[in-house]
Amino acid sequence: MSKKRNWLIGLVAIVIIVFGASLFYFKEANKSQSTGQKTSSSSKTKLTNLPKGVKSTDWDLVLVNKWHPLSSEMNFEKATVSGATVDARIKQAVLDMQNGARAAGYLTNLISGYRSIQYQQEVFANVKKNNLAQGMTDEQAQKATAAVVQEPGSSEHHTGLAIDIAGSDAFEKYPNLEANMDQFASQQWLINHAADYGFVLRYPKEKSQIKQTGIDYESWHFRYVGVANANYMKAHNLTLEAYVKALKAAGR
Ligand SMILES: [Zn+2]
Q1: For a Cys-Cys bond, which of 23, 45, 98, 112 suits 249, CB 3.0-4.6 Å?
Q2: What kind and span of H or E run contains 167?
Q3: What is the model's pLDDT at position 134?
Q4: In sequence order, which residues have a C-beta less than 8 Å from that of residue 37 and are 6 or more positions away?
Q5: pLDDT for the residue numbered 43
Q6: How far apart are the CA of 151 and the centre of ligand 1, in A?
């Protein structure tokens, strides 16, 4: 009787140990799987299936930011669309996006397009002058100005491929352009459908992405990169900086 009991206790103990061990193993396996996924999604230079024929040197992928400023004005044919100037090659795409929004029930305002380096110099100088007038030293004024105005040469608007566009209702509430404009369905429509027209939301809000672009979230600033690039960047959640880096890593 007691032998049988001991045997039973032993059997139960074995079952518990085996079950416990497999549970532990399962948990660990899951853990390493999820860390594995994390590692693969953060190594953005190892992207596959990059769009065919695309090169990092293509005109619609030109990268302008504070680390890649322009030293002189860019030369390209300009066109006027909805009261703003853009690179003539993207005029139709801008019109199509505005028409698409209208068909979905949203009126939009094209707030700005191309800006010359010279114009940016004037804007910068004016803001800096105001800061100096408020008693700042030259160094302080320069710093305070650079915090709110792109330094001449480093604004993407110099390329003629960037547009500031907003739902008319969002723009009416936030005429100085604020991230909060994305609370409007019109702005959400633009953000969600931009890629259909070859545009990407250029300055997204994820912290890691702000580090890449060097610019805080802007729910109104879109950049033309072409439909294939825009769809790829959207699908892989890539900034232009990360995408160009990936193309270069692939020898493109
Ligand atoms: Zn802008």
Answers
A1: 45
A2: strand 162-167
A3: 95
A4: none
A5: 45
A6: 13
Contact 160, 76 (CB under 8 A): yes
Q: Burial code of 224-247, b = ≥16 C-beta within 10 A, e = fewer?
A: bbbebbbbbbbeeebbbbbbbbbb
Expressed in angstroms and rounded, the spacing between residue 32 Cα and the centre of ligand 1 is 42
Q: How far is the CA of 52 from the centre of ligand 1 (A)?
A: 29
d(CA 252, CA 234): 20
Q: Ligand 1 center to residue 40 CA distance, Å?
A: 32
- pLDDT for 10-38, tens place per residue? 555 555 555 555 544 544 444 434 433 44
Residues 6+ apart with CB under 8 A from 56: 244, 247, 248, 252
- Decide if 113 contacts 81 (C-beta within 8 A): yes
C-alpha 177 – ligand 1 centre gap (Å)? 9
CA 63 to chain centre: 13
111's CB contacts (< 8 A; 6+ apart) are 84, 163, 164, 165, 166, 171, 177, 220
Distance 221 CA to ligand 1 centre (A): 4
Tokens for 233, please give them. 């960047």
Distance CA 230, CA 193 (A): 10
- Asked if 85 and 78 count as a contact pair (C-beta separation under 8 A), the reply is yes
Q: How far apart are CA 24 and CA 32, in angstroms?
A: 12
What is the side-by-side strand order in the sheet with 218-224?
108-112, 162-167, 218-224, 199-203
